[in-house]
Amino acid sequence: MPVRLLPRSLFGRLILVLLTGLILAQLVSALVLLRDRGQTLYRSVQTDVIMRTVGIVRLLDSISWQERVRLVPLLSSDDMRITLARVPAPKPEQDADAEAAARLIQTRIARHLAPGARVAVSFQGVFVPEAMSAMHHRHMMGRGMAGPRAYMHGLHAMGDTFYIQVGLKDGTWVRFERQVPESLFGWPSRLLITLGILLVSVVALSLLAVRWSVGPLRSLRRAAEALGKDIHRKPLAVEGPSEVAETAKAFNTMQQRLKNYIEDRARILAAVSHDLKTPLTRMRLRSDLLEDEGLREKIQTDLNDMESMVGATLDFMRGTETKEPSQPLDLMALLESIQGNMSEAGWEVTLAGQIEKPIHGKPLALKRCITNLVDNAVHYGERADITVDGQDQHIVIAVNDNGPGIAEESLERVFDPFFRVEASRSQHTVGTGLGLGIARNIARAHGGELMLENRPQGGLTARLLLPR
Fold first, then answer.
1. Which residue in 312, 217, 318, 220 sits closest to 267, CA to CA?
2. How many beta carbons lie within 10 A of that of residue 9, not counting itself?
3. pLDDT tens-digit readout, 274-295
4. What are the residue ranges spanned by the domains of the chain?
């Protein structure tokens, strides 16, 4: 089964797009800020080391040995230890990248001292200038010492201590041992907290904005669902942004036009019904005057069939347009009454299942719908077995029979007016072929559906779905 990556709802898709964009934007911003912070720290540390070294060297170069011995302890600090020596300490071996970085800082220090000044720089930790960052990143990756802490912050370090030795004019060597505080490598908690608060705030406002924007669509969906059940429902409120107000206005206009069309059709059907009954009544009266009893019975039989067909046709065309109000309905009581009526008429009808909570619907219309299904079952399958199942979203009423079933290609066509499948069902049934169509119209008017399916063991199942 394929995995659905996109949410089904518009709300979910908007949230997905906004959150993805916001999170990516925040991550990129955080990386840029951390990178700039690292480079700024590097430049500050480098400048501080160079300028402090140069300043101390100039000071010591201008005083005597005895004064230097007394002054050096005062110039030392927690992060820089200063010592004097007659000879320079041996320089440790370093690889090419570390040596190149040492020469770079060595050149910058010598530039601020007198010509010919002797300077030696070595590292336990290398702080690489921006121009050398890519080279040193490859070097550290090869040694397994690079990580997000160093690379993301712009401080590409292989250690945290470096040594600078400078020869004074009288041959004395002053040695600087500088340690970089570990805090420079730590994550800037205040910056990250600020970015986190900003992200949460923007996400919360985005959720509120999307919900506020999608709200009118939900109202429109509920109104469209209610319109199928009650054409006389209250119109939508024309308010909100211009696009929403115009959509609500168009929906209300559509509802009014449908209402006018249905009312006009009802008036026409009432007139047709009256006009058809009048000539049928005259024909029935004239048939009573016939002396030939056999001919009279045939004509009256035809008239009965015509009246039945006219009544059924008008009912089908009238559809679900009725003045019956929708109200809470005890569905089990309705099914039990239908079962009792059919049993009294001599048909075998069973009922299984239980629905405790009432549903909202039109009692007479639903009774007619279910009665049509049970009538079909007992006439074509000799018995009807009714089962009721209460699901989360719908209530399912299944009417099963033991008849011959219906060909698969005709399962939908039987809902068409006057379509009958006499060859596959029964040759001795009567009816106009409108019962199933009327039943489906009633089901859909309640927001439900009616479907037919053949049973594996034989027979037909009429499955009625009604919303809770």
1. 318
2. 12
3. 677 778 888 888 888 888 888 8
4. 10-191, 242-318, 327-467
* Closest alpha carbon to 104 in 33, 141, 49: 49
- Write down the mean pLDDT value for the chain: 78
The CATH architecture that domain 327-467 belongs to is: 2-Layer Sandwich (3.30)
User: In the 3-class helix/strand/coil scheme, how is 192-239 assigned residue by residue?
Assistant: HHHHHHHHHHHHHHHHHHHHHHHHHHHHHHHHHHHHHHCCCCCCCCCC
419, HSE (Cβ side, Cα atoms, 13 Å) = 13
CA distance 181 to 122: 18
Residue with tokens 């200038």: 129
Architecture of 242-318 per CATH?
A: Orthogonal Bundle (1.10)
| 108 CB-near residues (< 8 Å, 6+ apart) | 50
Q: Which of 282, 287, 389, 380 is nearest to 335 (CA)?
A: 389
Please choose, from the candidates 27, 369, 331, 14, the residue with its C-alpha nearest in 3D space to the C-alpha of residue 199: 27
Residues 443, 361 contacting (CB under 8 angstroms): no
Element (H, E) at 162: strand 161-167
Full-prediction pTM beyond 0.85? Answer: no
